[in-house]
Amino acid sequence: MDAPFTLPDLAFVRLRMTMRLLADARLPAHKGALFRGGFGYAFQRATCPEGCWGHARECASETICPYRWVFETPHPPGIAQLHNLQDVPRPFALRLPRDQRTSYRAGETLEFELVIIGRGLDYLPFFIFGFARLGEIGLGAGRSRARLERAEALEAWNPVGPVVYQDGRVVDLDTLPQIDGAAILARAQALPPDLRLSIETPLQVKVGGALIKQLELPALIRATAWRLDALATFHGGGPWQTNQRGLAEQAQAVAVEQVQVCWEEWERRSDHGAGPQKIQMGGIVGSAVLRAVPVALRAVLLAGTVANVGKASVFGNGVLAVEALR
Fold this sequence. Notes:
Helices cover 27% and strands 28% of the residues. By secondary structure, it is an alpha+beta fold. Strands 1, 3, 5, 6, 7, 8 and 9 form a 7-stranded antiparallel sheet that branches. The chain has a 4-stranded antiparallel sheet with strand order 13-16-10-17. A two-stranded antiparallel sheet has the order 2-4. Helix 5 packs antiparallel against helix 6. The longest helix has 19 residues, at 217-235. It is globular and about 55 Å long. It starts with 10 loop residues before the first strand and ends with a strand.
């Protein structure tokens, strides 16, 4: 008899962050690079001595600091799985506004969601103060200053939750609502088998080395399962012992209807490597109806709605939504 399906040993905390602008600002339409790049810069300056700034890979300390754990996670000893993976997934992801506004006035607020994953929760105060430091450094090319006003820990599947940071002070980190595999599976079992899947931000998933330009459910399931496995391996309770190929085979049997998908392009600038370069960040967005989705696939897709999926997940790409078909 087959063992019951379970998700990996991995927990998530969703924080809704509110930053209030202290000056007028011009910001990019796609804000993933602004927040991810600026946050990494600010996080290091909030957690590391000045001599390490910009030189973390040269650090000789045997103690792994919060910055190196979050942004340069080491391979765990004794685990051969994913040993060739060069870009270890970060224990966080961003979910950013979709309005693509570029002009803001002083006094307006920016709201976005920060998902902290697995052992990243050990460094939750550093995440909060990293974003507070980012506001002090300034946003956008004009370095418009902002204040991290509030952080709320959202309850599972709800847009509300307790305040954990308010106006420069950590309020309560002892009763954080978390989402784990058991909660995701329970919600998946409560959902009907007919679902609407929405891809809210560009999804980059490859099949045979090429980016998909249409919705391919087996490819989406494989990419989601791979991400969950990698996150659990590096930041959770260890590799996910499940048949990922079997999940993709189940996805092939799902009827996919009313597909409305298009390619949405955006790019970011990177100053790493040989010099400044533009990196394409586009992917597919849209929606589809999925018929007769097995519970295991419902659970994988729901986990993807929390963790983001595909390339540049940490930048806010690959945001999914799953709901019962109305």
